[in-house]
Amino acid sequence: MSVITRHLPARSLRNMLGTRVGEQPAYSWLAEGIRQLVSNGRVLHGTMLPSERELVSELGMSRTTVTRAYQELRERGFAEAKQGSGTRIRIPGGDIGGGSEPLAVGIQETLPSGGIDLTCGAPTAPVGLASYYERALDQLPGYIGGMGYYPMGLPVLRETIAHEYTRRNLPTTPDQIIVTAGALSAVATAARAVLARGARVLAESPSYPNSVTSLRQHGARMTALPIGPEGSDIPGIEAALARGGISAMLCLPDFHNPTGTLLDNAGRERWARALVTHDVRGIIDETNADLWLDDRPDVLPMATFAPSLITVGSASKTYWGGLRLGWIRAPRELIGAINQVRSTVDLGAPVLEQLVLNLLMTERAGLDSPTRAGLRKNRDWIHAALGAQIPEWRIQKPGGGMSLWCNLPAPRSMALVAQAKKSGLILSPGSTFAVNDHGLEHWVRVPYALDTPQLERAVPLLVSAWKTVA
After folding, report:
1. Quick one: which of 326, 345, 364 has its CA closest to 177?
2. CA–CA dist 440, 259 (Å, integer)
3. Does the keyword DNA-binding belong to this entry (predicted)?
């Protein structure tokens, strides 16, 4: 992986370090302060530190103090120095590339060296995440005296999740919560608990491919209902359910992936009423519920309108994809059956990660402000850039989510993806998100969760690929 070199001015580092307090030796304070900035993601791998002379002048420390601090950073693996090039930050073990959101089997592409992955619709870790892991480690001794199995999740985390639903006007108690290893695991577990093999499941198309694949692998027969840029077709949903034969429906009312649409309360109430009327089990995926980018939407969880609905949540989009945790919120009468199925899949989520998530949800619930602002900026920039350079594409700017759902004037999605790959740009064709595994050749998803420099590199490659195949 190529490293983008950043230069950290001495004044910026001084402001980030803050005021020295306590009796800690000056060199140790400086070295530990920089290490904490690296651990918390505020100073990135490859960043050039100020020269010793610049830092001496800015901090008012002796040259010996700064030299010793830099030496300690090198000895601990947080910096490296090259003759004539200064001191550069490094992450012990190196900066590990990849880690992008995997899509369904058979779709994931291998990223070439120096390439750009525009298949991933998830943000990077927020600044300061490492400090939550450090604090969670302080709490861990209280749990390691036992066997470490919490099949339904840590009681403290289940209570926090229940409190969050109650705050959103969906009264919930901890005994209605099961913590899982991500939202996909939650969807699969809930489906196996309430569906017989061969049952028909209705889903909007396009939809999130991993959930659809998971349901199909359980034996569900998927039935597709179109959803367009204008949002969910509530009359169409009502008519499809009224025809009968549907056992469950996968519902994504919150910044639908990939269209980015948000359903209002009136639509949620009609949808929920139709599910109950026709005895169809609704599985509501709220993975993107907190990904609003403009104004916070005044909407209620769909389960507010129908207590029989099963709701799935996730930490991956709101906090970090590496925090592999999700949860199920279900009616009490289903919890036993769902937990029984869960025990055939795994015996509980990792304790440390649950402690981290509990700290995050109680102290900074939801997407943090810098991440939200960065996503909003990226969305606005790439929407304007594509609109100016490919005006024939129809792109509705979503109020939230992680991607643009772009309508091409010709059915060239697969050709576009193949052409872009030649330039090192990896895209997902529209058919990736089709419930029936085909079609949607007039569409392509363009995420904007990458950092700005990568998006600025990606857009010319995307424009060039389109002009070649158009």
Report:
1. 326
2. 12
3. yes
